[in-house]
């Protein structure tokens, strides 16, 4: 058994001021954000460390403490045709606090004058306001924005400077959404006009868009990697070498967060909308679209999908014929992004599990693919058969319980119930505004097309139904 990665084993750790408070200890933030902080520190541009806050009562606090906040980031894949395979110990995390175990030490983070940034990723579910919560400075709010409001309030009552907040949650205008939730708490908890003014004047909420495929803990190579490293690491995280961060906010932020000076692929802009649309629809949209048919075809990873003749053709046609025509950027830019995205999906060195993408597939379909489906129909292009085929596969996948069906319980119940009457299933589900936020049954041709694809999958099986679809497009 190799020794555990810890300060005892790795003695090069520097003491730097804590400049970043980070809500979230998940794989993504540790590979994407903390790796970048590490690069800035190494080149000598930042000299700042990170204090992590565990947003939920359960999490990695214990493991992170045990390893003295050290862990390895593995970048694996091709970049500009060159094979990249790096293993780097991340040293910029100073501490991790669990507000449920030690609320005073959580509030204490706000006392530090060096702390300048608040960065978060609490998944799409994290930025929430709960109107039923009452105010307390003795125990943590149940939500991330609630805890953040407590931290900000603690900072404000000591007359200290505010923060630059950069949420990374994959929701539209995440900076605005986070600020809105904090203001809702401030109002609901009656924290006063002066505090509300302090939030507006002293704090800068940026929206941001993140892009890097982080496949997470390399379970299957665990032992082999520990042998190579010469230490045991329960927090290893694997990611592709590609990374891209778009930060929407005032340009002076870049002086304080010199990511670009460290040659990192980051853009500071006053409008991230085009980058967001391109990424959410082409990359995340393809991911979400491939999951149900690929799972029904018994595939397990994104790479397997890209190696599969039928499914890779399916994704390619979906992107070219249905997604790209709906986006408002120059065609060649979109083509280039699509080409590099599909190349990234082929990365043979990371195991990106379809079941990890499958979580909450209905809400993902709603944000990533429904706008594509509607735009094609409303603009009277060809029927978006590929998007509809993916939806048919998803309904099929949700027909019965499986490992990959992890979604909102009410949504699952509605779909299961609708399957009890296959004759009316399509109309029942498309007209359910609770699921889609609107009635989709009146979209021209949608019911017929969805019914056809469902019938084909039911009658011939996924493969054969897919062949029908691909053959139809070739004609
Ligand atoms: N893995 C990727 O390739 C990738 C790439 C870009 C963006 N993302 C996004 O990043 C998010 C996190 O991914 P990850 O791989 O780090 O996942 P993870 O499971 O490793 O970490 C999830 C983190 O979110 C927190 N969290 C979960 N639900 C929460 C809630 N309701 N309230 C507050 N905090 C909550 C957890 O405490 C944890 O810190 C995902 O939602 C994903 O959309 C992931
Ligand atoms: O992380 P999710 O579950 O919201 O979505 C799954 C993938 O589409 C996503 O993680 C991408 O890999 C990532 O957004 C790439 O930047």
Shape type:
globular
Largest sheet: 6 strands, parallel
CATH C-level name of the largest domain: Alpha Beta
Whole-number tally of structural domains: 2
What is the number of beta strands? 13
- The CATH H-level superfamily of the largest domain is NAD(P)-binding Rossmann-like Domain
- The DSSP helix count reads 21
- Uncertain spans: none
Rg value? 23 Å
Instruction: Give the amount of beta strand, in percent.
Output: 5-15%
Helix % is 40-55%
GO biological process, one term: mannitol catabolic process
Catalytic activity: D-mannitol 1-phosphate + NAD(+) = beta-D-fructose 6-phosphate + NADH + H(+)
Domain Mannitol dehydrogenase C-terminal: 271-457
Pfam families: Mannitol_dh, Mannitol_dh_C
Could you please describe the fold and organization of this structure?
It is a single chain. The protein contains 21 helices and 13 strands. The strands form 3 sheets. It has a 6-stranded parallel beta sheet with strand order 5-2-1-6-7-8, sandwiched between helices. The model has no long low-confidence stretch (mean pLDDT 96). D-Mannitol-1-phosphate binds next to α9.
Question: How would you briefly describe this protein structure?
Answer:
With 475 residues, the protein is an alpha/beta fold.
Please give a handful of descriptors for the protein shown.
single chain, 475 residues, alpha/beta, Rossmann fold, N-(1-d-carboxylethyl)-l-norvaline Dehydrogenase, domain 2, 2 domains, 6-stranded parallel sheet, 4-stranded mixed sheet, 21 helices, 13% strand, globular, binds nicotinamide-adenine-dinucleotide, binds D-Mannitol-1-phosphate, mannitol-1-phosphate 5-dehydrogenase activity, Mannitol_DH_C, Mannitol dehydrogenase, 6PGD_dom2
